[in-house]
Amino acid sequence: MGQVPEALQVWGFLITREIASGNANAPPIIIGQTAVHLVLTSGDRALACVKAVAFGVDPAMPTDLQPIGRHLIVEFSGASRLTDAASISDALCRAAVAAGAAVLETRMHDFGTHHGVTGVVLLAESHISIHTWPEHGYAAIDIFMCGAAEPERAVAVLAAFFRPERREVRCLERGFAGRLPV
Fold it and tell me: What's the pLDDT at 172?
């Protein structure tokens, strides 16, 4: 497997097949289970190649593309405080503010005693959503923010609130603004 697929696997993508581009020097097109999956980020050479493939440009050509927003997929295992919708709503709002986001509205649903909570905090910068399974000590959280907001700061606030034994955070860079090389 080549450099680009290895980079994608590091980011948690399942590679189901690789299609040669027809040019021996060009990176492959990566096909996932249902669609083309590309990790678009700056940094190491393999991920830069993936960004270039997404926009159909030579990976060796520099670009000044920047993500419009970052979407964090947060998994808390061995977490506590998973059943009180009001406390969870407050924690999500504090997390948004800590990230530099503006809260527009919150909506929470409590599934009843000893059951989980689902909810969303609508932000001017996008959203934070959550679904909890107290019977498994698990919370699934999405934090999507654009602009100058720093979603990683929200994760720190939520980790302090839920006190998970284990946490996993994946980041997807969404949408790109900037200039492609000519």
Answer: 87
Round the CA-based radius of gyration of the chain to a whole number and report it: 19
Whether 171 is a known active-site residue: answer no
Which part of the chain has CATH 3.60.90.10? 68-176
State yes or no: is 146 an active-site residue.
yes
The residue from 49, 71, 89, 126 that is catalytic is: 126
- The backbone region for 22, taken as left when phi is positive above 0, alpha when psi lies in -120 to 50, beta otherwise, is left
The per-residue pLDDT for range 54-81, each reduced to its tens digit, is 444 444 445 566 778 899 999 999 999 9
131 as an active site residue: the answer is: yes
Superfamily of domain 68-176: S-adenosylmethionine decarboxylase (3.60.90.10)
Of the listed 49, 71, 89, 146, which one is catalytic? 146
